[in-house]
Structure to design on (528 residues):
C-alpha cells in the first residue's frame, strides 16, 4: 500500500480488493462477530483486523470515506485503521482513542500510528483526533470531522535531531545507552540559572504548589520504575506523601485522588493506553495532572495540565534505556523546582544536589568507557537461566529495572527484589545455578544488603555485585564486582542503572537475541 508507514507490530489484512492496516483493540468484538456471521461472513480467526475488513466490505457502496465513517460508529474500543480499495488510489484512515498521525512529504504523504515511526520519512506532521477521517493521495490530504465537515489542520515540524540510523553502533539499544551523557547535558542546559531550576513551559506559583497535599505517580514498565525513584525524590524534597502505582491498576480501584492531588504520569511514548486511561480518571476526579514524557504532541502530553519533556530524542530500541535516566533527571529537577517554590528545600541542599547533578554527564561517560568489562562478565554468565537483582532503598527500583532490562532483551528469567524481602520466600529458589546481581551502592543500607548477599552466597549462588569505587568489603563475598565512580547517594540511581543496561545488552548479544526488537514486544502499547 503506497505511502503508508508501517509501524512495528502492525497488522495487515486483505479481503476482496480491500487492504487494511490496523492497530488497537476492539471492545464490542463479540457483538460485531455475531452480526457479521448473521450477514453471511465466514470468520477465520479471532483477529480484530478481520472484523474491520468485513465491516468495511459490508458498508461499502463505492465511497470508502462513507464506509469508514459508518464503520467508526459501529466499532467501539481504542484503535486506528487505514484502508484502500483496489478501485481508487487513495488511503482512508481513522482512529478512536488511539494516536493517528499524518506525515507530509514531497509528492508523498504518510500515515502512522505513532509519531516516531514517521520521522525517517518526514518531520512535517499533523495529528488526527478521535473520529476524524483522513483521505490521502500522494499529492493531497483531506481531513474531515466525524460529521463530514472539512477541517484545516495545523501542521507542525518535529524538531528532534536524533537520526534513525545506528551510526557506529551494532544496535539501537547500545547507541541509546551511549547517548546518555549528551542527554544529561541537553536536559541541564537552560534549566538551571543561579542555582535555581527553571523548567520550560512550567510556570507554577506558590499557591498552586501548596495546594497539592499529595502526589500520585502513575506509569507502566520502565516508567513505573522511574516513578518509584520519584517517590523517594519528591518525598524528600517536598515533604508530602507520594504514592506510586502501576497505571493498569490505578483506574480500577477508585483511587483516592482529588483537587488536592498532583498526579504525575510518566511515559516515554506519551501514548501508553493504560497510562492515558489513568490520566483521564485522575482528571475526572479533579486532580492536576503533570506528564513527564519524551514525545512532543503525544496524547498524554496534550491531555495533561502540565508537561515536562525529557528530551531524550527518539528511542528506537524496545528496551528503554536513555528515556529512563532522562525521566529520573526530570524528576530530580522537578523536585528541586517545586521545592524551591515551596521553600521545602534549603539553598544549601539545592546547591549540593545541583553540584552532583552537574557531574552526571562526566560520570556517565566514565562508566561507559569501561564497556569491555561488561563483555567479559557477559561471557561468563550468559548461559544462566535465572537471575535475581536485589537492592535496598534507591537500589531497589534500580534492581527492578535491571531485571526488566535483562529479561526483555535476553529472555533470561530475571526478577528484581527489595533485598530485605528476598529472604521471605524467594530465597528458596536460590541454587548453584542462580545469578544474584547485588546492588550495594546505597550506603545507608549497605551492611544490611551485604548480609542478604551472604545469605545467597551461602546457598551457592554466583554473586555479581555493583558497588562504589574503593569498596573492598564486597569483593570478599562477590564472584565479580562492577565498580562505579563515587557519587552522592541521593542522585546515584541515575547512574547505577547504566551498568545494568550494559549488562543486559552484552548478555543478550552473547545469546544471539534480537536485541532491538525482542519477541512479543512493541515499543508503545496502545491497548489496555
Ligand atoms: O512509553 P511508556 O514509557 O509509557 O512505556 C511503558 C512501558 O511499556 C515501557 O517502559 C516498557 O516497559 C519498556 N519496553 C521497558 O524497556
Amino acid at each position: 500500500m503506497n505511502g503508508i508507514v508501517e509501524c512495528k507490530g502492525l497488522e495487515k489484512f486483505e479481503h476482496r480488493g480491500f487492504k487494511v492496516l490496523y492497530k488497537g483493540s476492539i471492545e464490542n468484538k463479540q457483538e460485531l462477530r455475531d452480526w457479521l456471521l448473521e450477514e453471511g461472513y465466514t470468520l477465520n480467526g479471532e483477529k480484530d483486523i478481520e472484523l474491520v475488513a468485513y465491516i468495511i466490505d459490508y458498508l461499502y457502496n463505492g465511497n470508502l470515506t462513507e464506509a469508514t465513517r459508518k464503520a467508526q460508529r459501529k466499532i467501539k474500543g481504542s484503535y486506528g485503521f487505514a484502508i484502500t480499495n483496489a478501485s481508487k488510489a487513495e488511503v482512508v484512515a481513522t482512529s478512536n482513542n488511539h494516536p493517528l498521525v499524518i506525515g507530509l512529504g514531497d509528492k508523498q504523504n504518510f500515515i502512522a500510528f505513532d509519531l516516531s515511526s514517521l520521522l525517517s520519512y518526514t518531520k512535517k506532521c499533523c495529528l488526527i483526533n478521535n473520529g476524524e477521517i483522513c483521505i490521502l493521495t500522494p499529492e493531497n490530504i483531506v481531513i474531515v470531522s466525524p460529521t463530514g465537515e472539512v477541517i484545516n489542520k495545523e501542521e507542525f515540524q518535529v524538531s528532534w535531531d536524533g537520526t534513525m540510523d545506528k551510526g557506529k553502533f551494532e544496535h539501537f539499544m547500545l547507541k541509546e545507552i551511549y547517548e546518555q551523557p549528551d542527554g544529561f547535558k541537553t536536559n541541564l542546559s537552560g534549566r538551571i540559572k543561579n542555582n535555581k531550576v527553571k523548567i520550560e513551559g512550567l510556570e507554577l506559583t506558590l499557591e498552586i504548589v501548596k495546594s497539592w497535599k499529595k502526589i500520585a505517580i502513575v506509569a507502566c514498565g520502565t516508567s513505573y520504575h522511574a516513578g518509584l525513584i520519584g517517590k523517594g525524590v519528591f518525598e524528600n524534597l517536598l515533604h508530602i506523601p507520594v504514592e506510586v502505582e502501576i497505571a493498569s491498576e490505578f483506574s480500577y480501584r477508585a483511587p483516592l485522588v482529588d483537587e488536592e492531588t498532583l498526579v504525575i504520569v510518566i511515559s516515554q511514548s506519551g501514548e501508553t493506553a493504560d497510562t492515558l486511561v489513568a490520566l483521564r480518571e485522575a482528571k475526572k476526579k479533579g486532580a492536576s495532572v503533570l506528564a513527564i514524557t519524551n514525545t512532543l504532541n503525544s496524547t498524554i502530553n496534550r491531555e495533561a495540565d502540565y508537561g515536562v519533556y525529557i528530551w531524550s530524542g527518539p528511542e528506537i530500541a524496545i528496551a528503554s534505556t536513555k528515556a529512563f535516566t532522562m525521566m529520573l533527571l526530570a524528576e530530580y529537577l522537578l523536585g528541586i523546582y517545586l521545592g524551591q517554590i515551596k521553600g521545602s528545600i534549603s539553598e544549601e541542599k539545592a546547591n549540593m544536589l545541583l553540584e552532583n547533578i552537574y557531574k552526571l554527564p562526566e560520570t556517565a561517560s566514565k562508566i561507559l568507557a569501561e564497556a569491555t568489562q561488561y563483555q567479559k562478565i557477559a561471557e561468563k554468565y550468559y548461559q544462566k537461566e535465572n537471575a535475581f537483582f536485589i537492592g535496598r532503598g534507591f537500589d531497589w527500583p534500580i534492581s527492578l529495572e535491571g531485571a526488566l532490562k535483562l529479561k526483555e532483551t535476553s529472555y533470561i528469567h530475571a526478577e528484581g527484589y527489595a533485598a530485605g524481602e528476598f529472604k521471605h520466600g524467594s530465597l528458596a529458589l536460590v541454587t548453584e545455578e542462580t545469578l544474584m546481581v547485588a546492588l550495594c551502592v546505597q550506603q545507608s543500607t549497605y551492611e544490611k544488603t551485604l548480609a542478604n548477599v551472604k545469605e545467597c552466597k551461602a546457598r551457592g549462588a554466583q554473586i555479581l555485585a555493583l558497588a562504589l569505587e574503593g569498596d573492598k568489603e564486597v569483593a570478599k563475598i562477590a564472584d565479580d564486582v562492577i565498580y562505579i565512580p563515587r557519587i552522592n547517594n541521593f542522585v546515584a540511581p541515575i547512574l547505577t542503572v547504566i551498568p545494568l543496561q550494559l549488562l543486559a545488552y552484552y548478555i543478550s548479544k552473547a545469546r544471539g537475541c534480537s536485541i532491538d526488537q525482542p519477541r512479543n514486544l512493541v515499543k508503545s502499547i496502545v491497548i489496555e
Summary: The two ends are 28 Å apart (CA to CA). Residues 27 and 432 are 47 Å apart (CA to CA). The first strand starts at residue 11 and ends at 15.
